[in-house]
Amino acid sequence: MSRAFVLEQTIQSTRKAEKFGHVVLLYERMQDYPNPLRRPQDFQSILVCRLANEGFDPDEDFIVVTGRMTAVVILVAAVVAAFGSARLLLYEMDRGEYVEVPVEAYTTIN
């Protein structure tokens, strides 16, 4: 079964992400992880390790884009760098639901 990983608990409900799989909260609150602006390498490595320990599969699982954008951007970059791709869930206000947006790593820039 697919899972939808959320960086931290947010004000916005992630209930609608449940249609994509079981929602897994990586952190209860921002204070539980290293500051992504002051310690970005620590933040990235801890997140990648946490996802690897959870058995994250970029072909099956999702990353829910919600919460503090700086942290989420670094999370997405770290996931794509470590796993080669990510399936993002972005909330589309007009539709009132999450939509899947696949992201893949590029090896060269032309």
Describe it:
By secondary structure, the protein is an alpha/beta fold. The protein has one domain. 26% of the residues lie in helices and 28% in strands. The protein contains two helices and five strands. The protein has helices at 40-53, 69-83; strands at 3-8, 22-27, 62-64, 85-92, 97-104. The protein has a five-stranded mixed sheet, with helices on one face. Strand 3, helix 2 (69-83) and strand 4 form a beta-alpha-beta unit.
Helical/strand content category: alpha/beta
The total number of structural domains is 1
Mean pLDDT value: 88
Arrangement of strands in the largest sheet: 2-1-3-4-5
Rg measurement, Å: 13 Å
Runs in which pLDDT lies below 50 for 5 or more consecutive residues are: none
User: How many extended strands?
Assistant: 5
General form? globular
Per DSSP, the total helix count is 2
Order of helices and strands: EEHEHEE
| First-to-last CA distance | 37 Å
Strand content: 25-35%
Give the fraction of residues assigned to helices: 25-40%
Describe the biggest sheet?
5 strands, mixed
